[in-house]
Structure prediction request, 252 residues.
Amino acid sequence: MAGEFTGKTALVTGAGRNIGRATILAFAQEGANVVVNYRSNRDEGEGVAEEARALGVEAIAIAADVGDSDQVGEMARQALERFGAVDIVVNNAASRPHQPFMDITVEDWDRVIRTDLSATFYLTRALVPTMMSRGWGRIVIIGGVCGSMGLANRAHTVASKAGLQGLTKAMALEFGHAGINVNLIAPGMIDTTRPLENYPGWPPSQERLDGQPVNRIAQSEELAGVCIFLASQAASYITGQTIHFNGGMHMV
Prediction:
């Protein structure tokens, strides 16, 4: 698929590190110009943009809290002003605080729902009109296996990830006639840097890993490869789907 996305632009949220960074670089490697979204760490965001430019594409980094609709709108405006269109969107940014149900405040709930669920709505509303006018677009959403399995101490995250599965189907039905495909990837265990206070028991024990068919943690680059596939011509007949990327931890 080398060069398949030449002339197209991909925007990835939460792209300063981990899955987002790997996905930006994967699209840049395939020829796409890229928009690197980061929330607060400018050095990380600009660093990823510079890595992308080294691969021969154009890249900009834009600070925006994806849970804030005004900031998302401004990010979309800047991206469209620079590139004229955003053809591919990967909704990756998320918050996963570890909180027992009765410890979750209304403010905690609202913040996670905005970041993990509403952000996809905000960004799609801002960018899909241009996709529709061009008759082509790809929206990839990074959900989580917890949206299908459930998970204790993360009720707000689980609700958001389950909601994203429904949102994926709704958008696929509405936008398919315009050449826009919408799919969700539900990852299991990925080797990323993370605040350990929100991830008790990380990294997982070998005994836990041995409990799934592919008994290892996945790398961010592997997940980025699934994003590339879903945006490619090879996946042009796939829409409204949840792709489970979890080493067999959960099967449907």
